[in-house]
Amino acid sequence: MRPGEREFWRVTNTAADSVLDLQYVFDGVPQTLQLVAVDGVPLNSQDGTEPAAVTPVTHFTMPPASRVEFIVSPPPPRVRLAQLTTLRVNGGPYFYNLPQRPLATVQLLGGRREGTKEDSSDDHQIGRSTAKSTTQQRFAGLGTAHVAATRALYFNEFPLSEYFMGVEGQPERLFDPNAAPSIVVTQGTVEEWTVENRTPENHAFHIHQIHFLVKSQDNFEINGSQQAPVITGQYLDTVQVPFWDQNPNHPFPSVKLRLDFRGPDIGDFVFHCHVLSHEDAGMMAIVRVQPSPKGKGENDRENDHR
């Protein structure tokens, strides 16, 4: 990096099973990351209809498949070591305890380019421009839309052998691409799903084709985990659900999600744990989106918002 020139970074967790907890440090001292977007959606975008604003954090949790965009400042010349690191991640008794480790080292180059200046006064304009140009109607009214159905889903497993993406009220089954869908929904609707982790290791809930609004992260602390910063109230397609501590008196950790089926996507697609060894061992299921009999869909966003 050059002195005085802030940069816009996009980071993707493409690891098969590692959770990252990003932190930017100068000589071991955490620095501020100015978050702009997660999973392709600008933060604080008010249902996608209002200008977004950057959010300052000192660390950010990324399960596999998560994407994040943020602004960073260069280290001052006096800094000996500037790094993007991942903090230690406790994945539970059956998961990896991932150590703190560096991901990238930042070096300061020569002088500032002519005509540039370090100025954070326009940070809010980055999110504002993005929200207006790409997401103005994308999730309009999702937070207050009529909920057509509520469902309870869960992660369960027989470690090292069988892993299940369960739906309450149905027999547990390993993923079979030729099986009937576990869930059938109608295009143009909104549903609320609670996803529990009934296992002693972390899982990452991911759904194809659509995003969801994170309504809450529940029962994390009682099981020895912390809620991920910034996540509640944001629109994601991947979210971590941390481990259950196996205390029978403790409720399972869970997330409550509002899923947006009002878009153009119909047909069969999957939802699963994005820890790939779990997914490959069966922790995946199919949702079928049937066309609306009334031809509803994309236009319902405006109706829900009114």
Strand and helix layout:
Layout: E1 7-12, E2 20-26, E3 29-30, E4 33-38, E5 41-42, E6 55-57, E7 60-62, E8 67-72, E9 82-86, E10 89-90, E11 97-98, E12 101-106, H1 123-134, E13 149-158, E14 162-167, E15 183-186, E16 189-197, E17 203-207, E18 212-218, E19 235-236, E20 238-241, E21 254-261, E22 267-273, H2 276-280, E23 284-290, H3 300-305
Parallel strand pairs: 13-16, 15-23
Antiparallel strand pairs: 1-8, 2-3, 2-7, 2-9, 4-5, 4-6, 4-8, 9-12, 10-11, 13-14, 16-21, 17-20, 17-22, 18-19, 18-21, 22-23
Model description:
The chain has 306 residues and is mainly β. It folds into 2 domains: 127 residues, Cupredoxins -  blue copper proteins (Immunoglobulin-like), CATH 2.60.40; 164 residues, Immunoglobulin-like, CATH 2.60.40. It has 3 helices and 23 strands. Strands 14-13-16-21-18-19 form a 6-stranded mixed β-sheet, with no helix packed on it. The longest helix is centred in the middle third of the chain and has 12 residues. It is globular, with a radius of gyration of 21 Å. The C terminus is likely disordered. InterPro entries: Cu-oxidase_C, Cu_oxidase_CS, Cu_oxidase_Cu_BS, Cupredoxin. It is found in: Periplasm. Pfam families: Cu-oxidase_2. Keywords: Metal-binding. It comes from Pararobbsia alpina.
